[in-house]
Design goal:
The chain is of the alpha+beta class and 498 residues long. It has a 5-stranded antiparallel sheet with strand order 4-3-2-1-5. α3 packs antiparallel against α5 and α11 crosses α12. It is elongated. The N and C termini lie far apart (122 Å). Pfam families: cNMP_binding, MS_channel_2nd. This is Small-conductance mechanosensitive channel. Belongs to the MscS (TC 1.A.23) family. InterPro entries: cNMP-bd_dom, cNMP-bd_dom_sf, LSM_dom_sf, MscS_archaea/bacteria_type, MscS_beta-dom_sf, MscS_channel_2nd, RmlC-like_jellyroll.
Amino acid sequence: MRETNMYSFLLPIVLLITTAAGALAVRSRPLGVRAGFLALLVTVPASLLYWSGTSPLLTGDTVPMGPEGHWLRALGIVWWFAAARLLALIVDRILGHDEASREARITSDLLCAAIYIAAFLVVLNFVLLLPVNGLVATSGIMAVVIGLALQNTLSDVFSGVAVGIEHPFAVGHRISLGEGVEGVVVQVNWRSIRILTDGEDVATIPNSVVAKAQIVNRSFPTERRATRLQLVRPAAESPEWMMHVLRQAVLLCPDALETPAPSVTISSLGMRSTTYAVDFFVAGSSMIGRTKSLLLLHVHRQLRYAALLAEDEAGVGEEVDPRAGTATALVSQITLFDPLTEAQRGDVARQMKRRTLEEGDLLFREGAEDDRLYVVASGVLEIKRAAGNGAQLLIGRIGAAEYIGEISMLTGAPHTADAAACTRTVVYELSRDVLSPLLRDNAELTQAFEQSVQRGLCLAERAVATQAGAPSAGPGAILAGIRRLFGHGATPAGARRE
């Protein structure tokens, strides 16, 4: 009898120790192994309990009150805690299965805590038959005392729960909290969230403040951002003309999205000044500043040359060709002509021919041979290349004081893209016949052209035109073509001439 009582005490203890050791052993194992182990701990004790005529609640008269019932009560303890752990694992998998969710575990942690507390109380009351009324009452009093002492902290915790349930953002999203803080959420915890600002600072915001703030999620449903640029211009300028120039400037900004389409409006009209607003979208917040800066640059350039054209039109009929002023200004902006003297630049400008294109007109077609350099005075040229499926691929756009066609002019290679006006555009043409004598007599000018081709015209204002005008031949073939067209004058500066 004594040996039976000893086994009645030892067997439950061995069962509980073995179960705890197994749980610790699989703790670092993959999810499937842990879930399988827990499912085994749920299935086997439940089967044994039902086979003994009871359930995990240990109801019925078949559960002895003495040592003989310790074995069944140990099975009940194993079942409840294994079931609680398995349910918590499922909740954690559903609510916190990715890296972002693991940084914001408020909701899943609360649910898991509630599951464990409920299992603990059930074990005390139904399995071990211990009264829990006094424990619950004492816990309530302690909760009131702790709540009064930790009001602010608890406010942050419950605010975090509310924000977690509503889920207005996730880790990795860019958010704005009113007008105070904007940045990328890097962590969400029980008391606060942490935001990495654009200044590479980490701002810690209490959850109670987050819950009361106006939250704007910049990353959902898309990271696309709308922005506005306002310009104040003299009221004497024609609003239609100014809006036309601003539309051209927006077209020249590659980061300004075409969909939704940009818009130019008049936000205020006064006696002395007019305020214009340019609204457009960019792909992400990091592009706003860069795109605004580029837009201002293009606005300045488009206004400058549009004003020169307006002055030229006003002076038509004078003895001196008024358009020479615009051509000279354009030539002075092109780095290729820096080696020329002022007189030579003026002579080149006088021999340039003006051409006006309406929207949709072709300047040149892909595959066509050409011997002219084209300089844009105003408007926007769109460069497109055949995509192979009947459609055309947009390579880019160029505007005032930018040029295109120089490689075809220098080498005789056909154009590899179409160039068409996407607004009303004024261009100046410079033929190869005008340029040939200068290249033969000016080694520095020749070197400038060769270096421009050799570097692939890597200057910022030439990036688009390079893609449109460069032939498929390598740099060596291009330089050979230049020397072939212009003879010994194309020998690079510093090289010996025979």
